[in-house]
Design goal:
CATH superfamily of the largest domain: ATP-grasp fold, B domain
CATH architecture of the largest domain: 2-Layer Sandwich
Strand order of the largest sheet: 13-12-9-10-11-14-18-16
Strand content: 25-35%
CATH topology of the largest domain: D-amino Acid Aminotransferase, Chain A, domain 1
CATH class of the largest domain: Alpha Beta
Keywords: ATP-binding, Ligase, Nucleotide-binding
Structural class: alpha+beta
Largest sheet: 8 strands, antiparallel
Shape: globular
Pfam families: ATP-grasp_4, ATPgrasp_N, LAL_C2
Order of helices and strands: EHEEHEHHHEHEEHEEEEHEEHHEEEEEHE
Number of strands: 19
Number of helices: 11
Protein name: ATP-grasp domain-containing protein
Distance between the termini: 60 Å
Organism: Streptomyces chengmaiensis
Radius of gyration: 22 Å
């Protein structure tokens, strides 16, 4: 469908899994919604926001097709959409069964399998990175010796920085392998360690054409868990141009056709290298950073552009302000006391995910963080300074 093409008076989409934003954005555009949530869990609050809600096993494509096909025959869906990691593969699978446009199951599967993705990029010479799929600590040690330096062990389908380990040398293979398994790691892949600043790239695709919306500077703490994000990036323009060219080539290679993508990149001395990518908006409130810094509502674009209801961004937008988020990572232990600084007169918001009596764990994944401070400023540096100053005054006292 090209922009401006006629759509039914009341177009309808199916939304698989997720939070209220996509359903609410569709409804604001006059689009009907059928929300599908996983049958093994109770209906989330977003189900009440949709025109119809269904409980289906999201892992069963046959069941999804059986639930949606009669509705599609009665009033055709324009798209099946999702913006959550859990919903991406089922969305692509059932859309393909219904004969609907969108990102193919092949593309979405590639994005969720870091080993296949890396093999494709290496085969095409797009930011090549040495990689292997070890079957045990001996393979891991052998790869480390061949790579001649530190390596990264991670799950091929991992998210939220879970079970990601840096190994300095081959002698640590046994311990790192045990730690990987203890952290729930599966389908291990090992890659050469890429040194340099880590960034993420938000993009939007329409008709197979890609537009970079923003590049986000990242702060990464222990276990490669993000501790902060800042927009727009402070990297020099020539580097940003090189990053954009890499992301365009990458998205072409995996065949992304439409919608948002969140691509993580390392800027190395040999040039930028892809770490991973997802056909959704970045987590960690990057959606909110885009709104604050660029005035962009990417959720609305996701719902409206494929239906011809909104015009897709044709050029990279210019930041109007700076925006930042800093995550709270207090010492492990039981929360004894909490005190928050005053945010009056600022653009900042403080969100806590813990209360007195809760147990704070060592930060091994994104879920282990205790909350965040988000805010904006006249530029990226001002926004970062505001968030860091406030985060430094958040008291989350822990003890045994």
């Amino acid at each position: 469908m090209t922009f401006g093409q006629q759509v039914p008076a009341t177009p309808r989409i199916a939304v698989l899994a997720g939070t209220p934003q996509l359903v609410c954005a569709a409804r604001a555009l006059g689009v009907g919604t059928v929300f599908v949530h996983h049958a093994a869990q109770s209906a989330p609050p977003v189900a009440a926001e949709a025109d119809m809600a269904l409980a289906v096993d999201l892992t069963d494509t046959d069941a999804l097709h059986a639930a949606l096909a009669p509705l599609h025959a009665e009033q055709p869906f324009a798209r099946v959409l999702s913006l959550t990691e859990r919903g991406l593969l089922p969305t692509a699978a059932v859309a393909e069964r219904l004969g609907l446009p969108g990102n193919s199951l092949h593309t979405v599967s590639l994005l969720q399998d870091k080993q296949r993705m890396r093999e494709l990029l290496n085969a095409r010479g797009i930011g090549p990175v040495h990689t292997a799929a070890p079957s045990g600590p001996a393979d891991l040690a052998a790869f480390c010796r061949t790579a001649g330096g530190p390596v990264i062990l991670k799950p091929a389908a991992g998210t939220s920085s879970q079970a990601v380990f840096r190994m300095a040398g081959a002698e640590a293979a046994q311990d790192v392998w045990r730690a990987f398994e203890a952290a729930g790691g599966t389908q291990p892949i090992v890659e050469e360690y890429l040194d340099g600043p880590e960034i993420s790239v938000e993009s939007f695709s329409y008709g197979g054409k890609h537009t970079v919306l923003a590049v986000t500077d990242k702060l990464v703490g222990t276990a490669f868990v993000e501790t902060g994000h800042t927009q727009p990036s402070a990297l020099p323009e020539p580097v940003l141009a090189e990053v954009a060219a890499l992301v365009h080539a990458f998205l072409d290679a995996v065949g992304l056709a439409e919608g948002p993508a969140h691509t993580e990149v390392k800027v190395t001395q040999k040039g930028p290298r892809i770490l991973e990518s997802h056909n959704r908006i970045g987590g960690d409130k990057i959606r909110e950073l885009l709104r604050r810094a660029y005035g962009l509502d990417v959720v609305a674009l996701t719902a409206g552009c494929p239906l011809g209801l909104l015009r897709p961004p044709a050029d990279p937008p210019v930041a109007r302000r700076g925006a930042a988020i800093r995550f709270l990572t207090p010492p492990p232990g039981t929360v004894q006391n909490i005190a928050l600084p005053d945010t009056d007169g600022t653009t900042a918001e403080i969100r806590l995910d813990v209360a007195v009596g809760d147990r704070i764990r060592p930060v091994r994944s994104s879920q282990d963080r205790a909350g965040y401070v988000i805010g904006e400023g006249g530029n990226a540096a001002d926004a970062a300074l505001l968030c860091e100053e406030l985060a430094g005054r958040v008291l989350i006292e822990t003890g045994e």
